[in-house]
Structure formats: C-alpha cells, structure tokens
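Z., the sequence and structure:
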Amino acid sequence: MKKLILALGLLGAGALAVLLWIFVLAPGEQTPPSQTVVFEAVATTQDPFAVRYIVGADDVTQTATSQFVADVSTSENHAQFIVSLEPSTQGDRTVTCRVSIGNDVIVEQTSETGFVDCTTDLPRANDGN
C-alpha cells in the first residue's frame, strides 16, 4: 500500500512539473508576434532600378520605376534592404530607401551614387503583455 501511495505521489509530482513547464516556462520560447515592416524606395530618375529585401526566409528581388513599396509581415529582428540603379543610368542618380513599422521610421538613407543600403535591426513587436 505504501508503494502505491508513493507511486501516486510521484505521478502527481510529475504531472505538476509538466503543467509548470507548459504554463510558466514554455511561453518564453514561443515565436515573437509578427509586425508589418514597410520597405519604400524612391528614385529621381524614370529609369528602372533594382530593390532587394531579405527578412528571415524571404529574399525578394524586384525591378521598379520611380518608386517601390512592399509590406512584409514578420517576427524577425533584422532586415536587409538595398536599392540600386543600373550603372548605365545617366543624369540624377539619387535614390532613397526607408524601412518603417507603423508610423516609426527605423532607417532612411539617401545617396546620389545610385546605390543605397537600409539594412537594419528591427525592434521586437509588442505582444500586448
């Protein structure tokens, strides 16, 4: 009888440990909440320009004319965003890139060389806690 009581006590302690893990320790390991990151690029020329952004597993390269905007939902904390004109582009080679979250501009860069890099760390999303 004592062995049965001891076994039930150990089983109860094990169940309590599992519940403690599930409700107290494990939530700290969950994926952070997602947020929408906005990538914007503007060129003063009407010639096409290339944009590339990398956020987590997303690696996107596109061509744009005059302006580019992309909204990306992510829980990552780092983003790479590069804008470049073709080397053959003549005249004004000014390009601007901006990375923002909501109304907060995280980084904005302008260059007259036809190449600009807005690679940045992203603040973590507020999960409401």
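The chain has a mean pLDDT of 84. The beta strands are 35-43, 48-55, 58-65, 67-74, 78-85, 95-101, 104-111, 115-117, 120-121.

Let me know what you think.
H.
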